Amino acid sequence: MKKLYIGLILGLVIWGCFKRTEYPPVNITGLMKDYTHVGETLNVYLSAEDAEFDSLSFQVDWGDGKISDWSKFVEYGKMVEMKHVYQSTGICTVKARAKDYHGKISEWTKIQVVGVYPVSKPPVINFVEARETCYVGTQYKLVVKITDPENDSVNCMVEWGDGKVEDWKVVDLPSGKEFVFYHSFATRDVDVFLPVVVKARDCNWWFASETLNVLYYDRPPYLERDAIKFKNTGIDTITDTIMFSKTEYWVAIAEGGASDPDPGDSLLCAEFDWGDGEKWRTSFKNPMKAEITASHYYVEPGTYNVIVRVMNVHGKYSPQACTLKLELVSKFDKVIGEGVLNQPIGLAFFGDSLLVADADEEGGYIYIFENGEYAGRWEGFKRPWDIEVLGDTIFVSDLSDFKVFMLNVKGEIIGEITKGERKLRPRSMSVKDSMLAVVDADAQKLYIFNLHNKEIMDSAVISEINDVEYVDTVIWILKKYAGRGVGKLEKYVNIHDSPDSYINIYNSFSVGLSTTPFAFVIDGNKIYVTDLDEDAVKIYDINKEVRIARWGAGGTAEGLFQNPHGIMVKDGKVYVSDTGNGRIQVFNGL
To answer: Are residues 475 and 572 in the same domain?
Structure first.
């Protein structure tokens, strides 16, 4: 008996060691809405954790006095769907508990507080202010009016279609009130329709929804037509000469000439289509606060349409594609004096004979050409610079002899003009009636001599003066700038009827002039200017004060120049002293 008792004790101990401990389910969770309506089915989805991973069953206390039956057992980890229909309104606390396969039951767990609302009609959405387009970078305004059939209080929210949401208002508003929303669309896509969804509800949680497709539209940038010009000319059509060499042209968009109406487009791009298959782009900030320039080299003569457009960051071009016209034609006619001349400067015609002042430092001459052919030369000069003709008298300025010589038709010296005891370094001259205007290269002074007595009748200090031309009662002055700035053409009035008179400036312009324009001649409403900096001849409109053409560039071929100096016009032909190349080049005038 004693042995039996001991064996029983040992068996119970061993059974207790190997018996599995059972625990009830824990952490019950549920997914469900926090509102429903009378007679409407409400779903709840339940799950729980179990230490032994047993199958589970659930029971729900719906908070209205009804408790559900236990659900069927489902595998651990799966959710159970439970359904209920409320028969009356109220606020109900929904609770649930779980039971494992071994019958272990959890405590009740609160799942959700549910509002049960009466049956009614949903609210009505009316768009009061709702544009169907919105420009990039602008704020969109939406005004909706929410009306409830039962006159319940209402609320509203908006889904903007770009991932942004305007949530429900904090407080419901009375039925019939307007809701106002503002939004800046946040998307890189442009010219697309964005579905703007307006949702409304009443205080009984009846919902309504309306969708408005808004075109998110990118406005193109703007390019002002008059803002596009050839730089330093102020015009949009140029007729120039191009001869066997690259010629560079600059195009400018004036400050403020391009813009984008959308402030969000902070960067714009200007595109220059040069008309010869080449394009060039440059970016700039919006709004445009400085001039934009671009240059291009042309190689062949022809007519080119230079098209300028502006593009924004979305790739949209301005509808105003501005076109400039560039005609590169050969105005070259012929060459005179090649192989004869050394350093030609001044030019003048005596009848049909072309007189050329050659300022070669080894000895200067006045060369004579008849019909483009060499016909002789006059000697007796050190460094002749400029030539002027008045009747049968020829005036020659000599830089190294410090005087102006007066010659007859045979080239014989018949008189001279000096400044008395002080030396005169005459450079350029212009003669009219009984007056001779002389530029003093050293003193930077303009002298007006009376040809009857060869005495000075007027003078003025004019810095950087290079050339002078008498036209009617106006003295035109060409000035250069060795340092900063640009050359200028200035018009002066000569008042010589009293001893206290002065030469007074009353107008000037410097459009397109480089720092060292050298000489000029006036032909009607056009001014031809030789430009040492650019080895070119530039032509200007006197009235408009703009450059209308340019001839040549640096080089030795026909139509190109090396340090062009003197220039004159006769019978529609333009004669240019191509000083560095030792020749005179003739062009057909404009």
So the answer is: yes
- Which CATH number is 255's domain given? 2.60.40.10
Q: Is residue 82 part of a domain?
A: yes
- Tell me, yes or no, whether 280 and 299 share the same domain: yes
**Residue after which a domain boundary falls, among 217, 239, 260:** 217
Task: HSE, CB side, 13 Å, CA atoms: give it for residue 511.
Answer: 21
The 3-class secondary structure across 526-549, one letter per residue, is EEEEEECCCCEEEEEECCCCEEEE
Give pLDDT, residue 245.
46
CA distance 264 to 221: 12
Whether residues 281 and 170 share a domain: the answer is: no
Q: Which amino acid is at 564?
A: P
- Beta pairing partners, 451: none
Query: Mean pLDDT in runs of 10 for the chain (590 residues)?
Result: 63 52 88 93 94 93 95 93 95 95 93 93 95 86 95 95 92 94 83 93 94 89 84 62 57 86 79 91 86 83 88 85 80 92 95 94 89 93 94 94 93 90 86 89 86 84 79 72 61 48 51 72 88 86 77 85 94 95 92
Give the total residue count for the chain. 590
Distance CA 297, CA 299 (A): 7
Of 164, 190, 217, the one marking the end of a domain is 217
Peptide bond into 319 cis (omega under 30): no
Token pair belonging to 102? 């071994």
Q: Which amino acid is at 333?
A: D
Residue 201 CB neighbours (<10 A): 23
Burial code (b: 16+ CB inside 10 Å, e: under 16) for 18-30 equals: eeeeeebbeebeb
> Comparing C-alpha atoms, which of 171, 188, 266, 281 is closest to residue 221?
266
**pLDDT computed for residue 411 by the predictor:** 93
The number of distinct structural domains making up the chain is 4
- CB atoms under 10 Å from CB of 569, counted, come to 18
Q: Which helix (H) or strand (E) holds 569?
A: strand 564-570
Classify the C-alpha dihedral 441-443-444-445 as positive or negative.
negative
Instruction: Domain of residue 549: give its range.
Output: 332-588
Instruction: DSSP letter for 525, please.
Output: T
Distance of alpha carbon 131 from alpha carbon 138, whole angstroms: 12
Write the DSSP symbol of residue 581.
Answer: G
Q: Is residue 8 part of a domain?
A: no
For 240-279, write each residue's pLDDT tens digit: 555 434 566 788 888 888 888 876 677 889 999 999 899 9
Does residue 194 share a domain with residue 139? yes
- Give the per-residue pLDDT at 323: 85
> Are 393 and 359 found together in one domain?
yes
What tokens does 44 get?
């709840």
Query: How far is it, in rounded angstroms, from Cα 476 to Cα 545?
Result: 14
Q: Return the SS3 of 18.
A: helix
**Alpha carbon separation from 130 to 134, 141, 240, 375, 459 (Å, rounded):** 10, 7, 57, 89, 77
CA triple 375-379-380, angle to 5 deg: 165
Contact, 448 vs 487, CB < 8 A? no
HSE of 337, CA atoms in CB hemisphere, 13 A: 31
Q: How far is CA 473 from CA 359, 456, 491, in A?
A: 31, 18, 10
User: Quick one: pLDDT at residue 389?
Assistant: 95
